[in-house]
Amino acid sequence: MRIGLLTEGGYPYVSGESHAWCDRLVRGLTGHDFEVYALSTGPRQEACGRTELPQHVRLVRSAPLWGEFSAGRGRRAEERKGRGPGRRERRRFAECFGALVSAFATVPPGGELARGAPHGGEPAGDPPAVPDGAGGSAVTGKADRFASGLYGLAELARERGRLPALLHSEDAVRILEAACHGPHALPAAQGAQVNDLLAVTAGLALALRPLSLDWYGDRHGPGLGGVDLCHATSGGAAALPGLLAKRFFGTPLLVTEYGVRLREHYLARAASPLSAPVRALLAAFQGALAAETYAQAALITPGNTRARRWQERCGADRARLRTVYPGMDAASFAAVADAAADDSKTLVWVGSVEPSKDLFALLHAFAEIRKAEPEATLRIIGGAGRDPQAPGYLAHCRALAAQLFPDEAADARTVGESPVSFEEIGSPEVPALEDAYASGAVVVLSSVIEGFPRSLVEAMFCGRATVSTDAGAVCEVIGGTGLVVPPRNPRALAEACTALLGDPDRRARLGAAARARALELFTVEQNVAAFRGIYLELISHAPSRPVAFRGRDAQGVPQPFARPAESHVPGRWAVTGAATRTAVPAARTPSWAVPEGERATLPVQTGGCAEPGGAPGIRGVAGIQGAPGIRGAGQLRRQGGSGDQTGLTGAREREQW
Prior knowledge:
Largest sheet: 6 strands, parallel
Helix content: 25-40%
Structural class: alpha/beta
Radius of gyration: 32 Å
Strand content: 5-15%
Distance between the termini: 47 Å
Number of helices: 21
């Protein structure tokens, strides 16, 4: 089958886990063809270029979610009419955009704000709750208006191709202003000024840019209209093309979220310098878009229970949620032996150094550990992360370690060394990642914010016991194979590490159990197998081609089996064979059964197709005569005029019968 893979800010342009799991999935499903539709989030991403792709990736289309919109990425120039939006087009835009804005920028009459919803401009600690009863009907009405406005704008962009200009027009600002200053506006948006309205319309223009792309099929190619399944690798903008493909062509949509896009948006907007009205309005739009995505998706695959809980609270149907853990490559860790039950006292921390990792708490905890285990050492392996504050945070960690653990020497003649070391992967001491885990007796995670803890899974692949803080999906990943303590609690972290350092047999048992659990749940093989089954399941519920590309007979009746299954196999014969033959209407009456007064002149086809009056799929062969419904090639006289060859043949057939 043909899969449309929809990405935002990841595959196939950048490295990292967002790129890696998509690459593993595509390379694992060699039996399917992939078309990648990628949205880039910055100029540096496209400048780095795409990675090498396997042969069954047939097409890669990209578009930026930054900068000015290029007309070449939208509808074809010859499909546009006129130089600017006309009065009728502007009126239609006002209706659709007004419905969209009223759906996310207003509160239903008598309604209350959902708990956790960031309408006040602050990030939500919990997912927004979905009201029940009368509040639920109001939410349903807003969702319907949002969908009506969204798909109305998509139809307008598809027909006219001027949506970007309309979203930056004065009409858009006036519609948004009327909603913000109306009686039912969001409380945080009621004080919006002109600069705020301009910032919101600019943000909406970027978020809605996928509506104007030429990804949905035209006379130059089918685009997303030709795929059998759309797989969005995240919510938000990446899922928008999938929503339109489902709307226009009936293509099923699969949404995978290993990190909830809505939560990431809340956190990013909270740290941005935007004003409170801008943050509230853009967050409300993203919330409405997430709800529409979850409502239209045929299946949603969260990467862990925390993401699943967010999706449920945002309106996702529990029956259409199925957890699929990210697949990680365990081959490189297979050579690492299980932890030995020895007297090793080395603690290892592996990751990117950022404030969210809370290395300050780890260093203070290690100071307590040294009181119980004087021979203990701590290896912090990893460089500064992507956070802008990461380099400064790493420098502060080094300074704190030097203050807490001055260089110690065994005697007056030896050189003093600190029990805490800062190292990086690729150095002589740690040439590879697996060497970092192999050097430790216990692997420690001290994060206060965590998504899916990849470093813990890698430690489990190496058979190491772990001590972790309860953040993100840590408890779900660890199960009962490690110790978990509250975050920001150096004393609890120190006690757990001390307990494992003093009990080698327990470390060995936990490490063996951790390796078995990781190999069962978190490998690439289980991830690929899960998605292979999901693809087949979704296609089995929608076996026919998209509506716009189904085979039809002369009367316009759909023919779901007009193309044989073999025509989907790549190869020249699939194009020059059955796919290019002119289909004969199935309900056509043989010439010998048509009364003389109603006979019509039927063309004689060449090239091996079924001939009029003959059996479908049987070619006329010279020397075969007298068989009912089969004419010998030697009997046919092809003329350029309108002679009644069919009637003559029919008369001969009646004489034989």
